[in-house]
Design goal:
Layout (H helix, E strand, L loop, with lengths): L1 H26 L4 H23 L13 H24 L4 H7 L2 H12 L7 H18 L10 H21 L6 H22 L7 H38 L2 H13 L5 H18 L4 E6 L2 E7 L21 E7 L2 E6 L11
Antiparallel strand pairs: 1-4, 2-3
Helix pairs in contact: 1-9, 1-10, 2-8, 2-9, 3-7, 3-8, 5-7, 5-9, 6-11, 7-9, 8-9
């Protein structure tokens, strides 16, 4: 369902983008590391409380199983622990303007890993769309002269972006599990890591109202946003999801106009055009060719469609149109239709 993937990826970007100006309202009371930790903890604790209060899993979703725990732990180690630590060291020897530009490498690295390591489908239209979105993000983050002097500082910031790109691609491998579970675990671990860094640097625990405000922003801008991000990974893969998510700085820029009364700049207008073109190129993509499906067995939420033709024993015998999850087998199949790199279309091109 490519429409579902695109919609949830854009909604994830909107929520994350809105969290940036809201976080700025709190940053004068908190260090960047303490703020990041509280935002992540807000997402993890908030989602856990929602699950506890509702007492049930969303229909059709399933928990993490088997090797998926290893993939998720690797993703959390890369994006929730290594990424923040590398960024911390990098920022100590990197000018702010240079760091802002280098942070755009996350989207680029995510796409490159998806295309060349995890073998997601790619074509010139997709590359052009990604380039337009990244160019818009670069315009938004341009803050003056760029300096790569210092060597290890910019390299550490770039390495942090690479860790987050690894995180995004590894999370895609577990995206058939319940997105709320994934977001909860990542929020709790990343939050604990960032708060630990802040305390190690000498930060004092924040006042209760400030902490509560940051955690509420984190629940929406990091927690719910990450749930939507994982749903998008499930449907359209890491490269396309990363491209849509790269529009988040533009959303934050637009929100800042209303919250802080910031002026409309030429850079913001140019970024809007570039990102609009990039999103349009992706939304109008038509990836249609004859392809093979090898035999496979897995477990994920599904309905009975052209890729799920199995039957159930007992009272549910016959096609099922409601989302449900159970282990099932796919036979070999060769056909042609428009598709994206979801769990059933990981073939090479």
């Amino acid at each position: 369902m490519p429409q579902t993937g695109a919609t949830t990826a854009i909604l994830a970007a909107v929520l994350f983008g809105l969290s940036t100006p809201l976080a700025k309202l709190l940053v004068h009371d908190l260090s960047p590391w303490m703020l990041a930790g509280l935002l992540y903890l807000g997402s993890g604790i908030g989602l856990a409380l929602v699950r506890l209060l509702t007492g049930s899993r969303k229909r059709g979703e399933r928990g993490l199983r088997g090797a998926e725990w290893l993939w998720l732990l690797a993703a959390v180690a890369a994006g929730g622990v290594a990424g923040p630590v590398l960024l911390m060291f990098g920022l100590t020897a990197t000018p702010a303007s240079t760091a802002s530009l280098l942070l755009n490498l996350e989207g680029v690295f995510t796409a490159l890993l998806a295309w060349f390591v995890f073998r997601e489908g790619v074509d010139r239209r997709l590359v052009a769309g990604m380039a337009a979105i990244v160019a818009g993000a670069v315009l938004l983050s341009w803050g003056g002269p760029v300096s790569l002097s210092g060597g290890w500082g910019p390299a550490a910031v770039a390495a942090a972006c690479l860790m987050w790109a690894v995180d995004n691609n590894l999370t895609r491998k577990v995206s058939l599990a319940d997105p709320a579970d994934i977001a909860t675990i990542k929020g709790l671990v990343a939050g604990t890591a960032n708060v630990g860094i802040a305390l190690a640097l000498g930060d004092a625990p924040p006042a209760a109202p400030t902490a509560a405000g940051a955690m509420l922003v984190g629940l929406l801008g990091y927690g719910v946003s990450l749930v939507l991000f994982v749903v998008a990974l499930r449907h359209i893969g890491a490269a396309r999801t990363g491209a849509y998510f790269s529009t988040a700085p533009f959303v934050g820029g637009i929100a800042s106009l209303a919250i802080f009364g910031e002026p409309v700049t030429l850079g913001l207008a140019a970024a809007a055009v570039l990102m609009g073109v990039g999103v349009w190129l992706h939304l109008t993509e038509d990836h249609d060719h004859e392809h093979d499906h090898d035999e496979m067995e897995h477990d994920h939420p599904h309905v009975h469609d052209e890729h799920h033709r199995h039957h159930h024993d007992g009272p549910q015998d016959g096609p099922v149109t409601e989302p449900h999850s159970h282990r099932h087998r796919h036979g070999r199949l060769r056909h042609r239709h428009a598709h994206f790199p979801d769990a059933h279309h990981a073939h090479r091109h």
